[in-house]
Fold this protein.
Amino acid sequence: MKIKKESSRLVQPIYEGSSSPTTNVFMPLSPFDTVTFDAHVAFIYVYKPPNPSNKLIELGLRRVLAEYREWAGRLVHDREGNRCILLNDAGVLFVEASSDHPLGRIDQPSPNYLQLHPPLEGAEELAQVQLTRFSCGSLVLGLTTHHVVADGFSISNFLVSWGKATRSLPIRPLPFRDRSIFLPRNPPKFQFDHCGWEYMKARPSNGVNGGGSAVDVTVAPIVVHKAYFPSQFLQQLKAKASSHGAAKPYTTFESLTAHIWRSVTRVRRLCGSETTQIRISVNGRTRMSNPKAPMDYFGNLVLWAFPRSKAADLLNQPLSHASRLIHDAIAGVNNDYFRSFIDFSSSETKMQGLVPTADMNKKVLCPNLEVDSWLRFPFYDVDFGGGCPYVFTPSYFPEEGMIFIVPSIMGNGDIDAFIPLFQEDVDAFRRILITKVEGLKSSSFPIKRHKGLACTLLSSSKL
């Protein structure tokens, strides 16, 4: 893939019909902002022609930044030394690029993805945009955003609003920012111990990497494997997971995550007595009450569930066992848990010597996993005037064990999972993924094919 960078500039908000706001506002970070990953993340959208011009998309960006000012700001420290977002309208990096070749296949994760968005490292800007046009007329939007500013749900709301602004429609949804919903209780209630989960004790500096996380030494190369799960397979998987006395059926996410957890654990060849756990994002917008957090809250509002098991139990017990572990762990991250976290993170005594556990510097998570579900995010509603994207994908992120679950481009309830593995384990993983589901009935049904699709296709007729 040959990409030519045509131009690069900073894009500031435009305030139409109103005076510009002050540019010296310091927005404090919430407890959820300070505990998340301190790094940029990247997303890629692919649009078929015809597409609006770069100038029109840029104008839409300027309009929406007037409402979502954080992206045009900068991370700084205030006079008290607290990290915050300075709303100074410094701007978003806007890159225009092109290729003399047609886009070709983009359905398989590849290091080529990294050419489709600005670099993740060393960016001062809190959001970066790259528009890449191909000779076939296809448009690729590559976006990077700093995770401290907002979580995936907020990013998707921002993108939907950007699309509407580009089409000269009213900007919706608008961001809700009232941090008073996160005030600690008086007196505080430490109902859960958050050390060892969201926080850990700071490691002493060794003079090499500033006392941060140890650098992983990876012997084998890591590749990102994409698995496609048709809805009919998922329905059977869900029925199997729920067949051992579940009070109510487990969700598709719980059943699929259980299946992936067991499959990855098997190819890792862990010792049976070794403990494996998953870090699963839980959206507080659907959990918090008194006061309730609105769905259009802008920022981070995520904590994590940590189901865990001995490797032998995970593999020897049926699928329902892993599904139950996942379900119970997620159910435990409820309003009480979120409120306890707010009280804990607001206590100077409790927080003494603690740092967040979220770490994007690790390249190998084995024996653990992290699973981020984007199934409920409206990424496919991002329309700049030429229609919705026909491909949405996370960028290439080869961190072994870091899994993204997204709605498939096939639609109809199908799911794509991006699963980084050691390259030597990929073939075994493919076989295990389609054979190690006990008792699923064989059936025949058509699988929709997408032009250029090349990934593991799971059909119950193969089981």
Remarks:
- The radius of gyration is 22 Å.
- Residues 207-216, 441-463 have pLDDT under 50 and may be disordered.
